[in-house]
Design a protein that fits this description.
By secondary structure, the protein is of the alpha/beta class. The chain is built from 18 helices and nine strands. The longest helix is centred in the first third of the chain and has 30 residues.
């Protein structure tokens, strides 16, 4: 009888401790300021005719109410189009108009913010602090006046390139493609002017997607801390989009921050083989979708949703996201890392991270790995806020 009572007591104690731990990480998570520096929901909504302020559960990684459930305080919305888009500056403005429409429909839940003071005002009012990041320098169409126009509308970072080159900067994809003959490599003189102009007006220089030569040219040109809005560690996953150790050290020396991308292909070194097998298996169906007019990105997304069971087994283990974070912290310190999910721009987030509502699991995992509350708050948002402030024009 005594042993039975002791067993019951132990089970109750275990449940009590588990409950306390769960409350502890959730309390810390929702008390902390959480920033996600890269989400592609605008492009997804335009392509599929969705509304961000409706319930999109099961269709997207994100919607307005799920961001609140996730504890996201600040979301940088990505403005994106690929190099085939006609009049990319006009399309960028169309995407910004879309965000404006969401904010205007939900003034009690969303607020456009252009600086750190407005950001904190939105947080105090329990509104989603909504920021703008332009993903690809081709959208400024080689015009500093158009760059100024994007800034005036709220853009606070620009990724110098997407996967395509611009006339003034080379991308990581193109620099590493041996079949491509480059007219130039890195930043041209005009490219350096772009970086200098961004510094002058208070727009963060985002070096995700850029080639190594462009990276080093930008690091040697900028006078402000840089942003890496959504990239990971090359040493752990050797793909062209990730950062090598010397780049990570240079970012820390510059005072910048690396916001980690959740894409399995940038986290897991075994992913590419799995993805190639999937593509071969469904090639005919993808070709048919693209022939019918779908862009490759959205054709892929359609297939990933249709064959969700296959996709689930391809996704990176959750711990790899934390492994990339640990690697950066051990190499340069906790002040230079944050989170830039790329939700709704990726089809393979890590296992357990099915959508934005899984964000508290990262806080839980950080606690389990021994990070202090202060360091966790830096990772969740504090490091980005520091870089934002350092880029602002006084």
């Amino acid at each position: 009888m005594f042993q039975k009572k002791l067993l019951v007591f132990i089970l109750i104690l275990i449940c009590f401790v588990s409950t306390i731990n769960a409350q502890s990480y959730k309390k810390l998570h929702f008390k902390s300021l959480l920033v996600d520096t890269h989400n592609d929901i605008i492009s997804t909504c335009i392509e599929k005719g969705y509304s961000f302020d409706s319930n999109l559960t099961g269709s997207t990684h994100s919607d307005l109410n799920r961001m609140f459930k996730a504890g996201i305080d600040v979301q940088v919305f990505s403005i994106w189009c690929d190099e085939t888009q006609q009049n990319p500056f006009s399309f960028a403005n169309r995407e910004i108009d879309t965000l404006y429409a969401w904010i205007n429909r939900n003034p009690d839940k969303m607020m456009l913010v252009k600086n750190s003071n407005e950001l904190m005002q939105a947080v105090k009012q329990h509104k989603l602090a909504s920021m703008i990041g332009v993903e690809g320098g081709h959208m400024m169409e080689n015009s500093l006046d158009k760059l100024d126009s994007l800034y005036a509308r709220g853009t606070r970072y620009m990724t110098l390139t997407w996967n395509n080159n611009t006339d003034w900067a080379t991308s990581a994809k193109m620099e590493t493609d041996s079949t491509k003959k480059l007219e130039h490599k890195g930043l041209t003189e005009f490219g350096k002017q772009v970086v200098q102009h961004m510094n002058k007006i208070g727009m963060m220089v985002d070096l995700s997607h850029v080639g190594e030569q462009t990276f080093w040219d930008a690091i040697h040109t900028t006078t402000k801390p840089v942003l890496i809005s959504h990239s990971d560690v090359y040493k752990l996953c050797a793909v062209y989009r990730n950062l090598k150790d010397e780049q990570i050290k240079a970012i820390a020396k510059n005072g910048g921050v690396i916001q980690l991308n959740f894409y399995s292909g940038f986290l897991d070194s075994t992913f590419n083989g799995k993805e190639k097998a999937f593509e071969e298996k469904h090639k005919a169906e993808k070709d048919s979708l693209m022939k019918a007019g779908k862009l490759e990105f959205f054709a892929d997304n359609y297939l990933f949703l249709k064959y969700a069971d296959e996709v689930k087994n391809m996704r990176a283990p959750f711990h790899l996201l934390l492994d990339h974070l640990d690697y950066i912290v051990k190499l340069v310190g906790v002040d230079y890392v944050g989170l830039g999910s790329d939700f709704d721009g990726i089809s393979f987030p890590p296992q357990e991270m099915d959508d934005v509502t899984a964000y508290p699991l990262i806080t839980k995992a950080l606690l389990e790995r021994g990070y202090s509350k202060k360091d966790i708050q830096k990772i969740l948002g504090g490091n980005f806020i520091r870089v934002l402030k350092a880029n602002e024009v006084k």
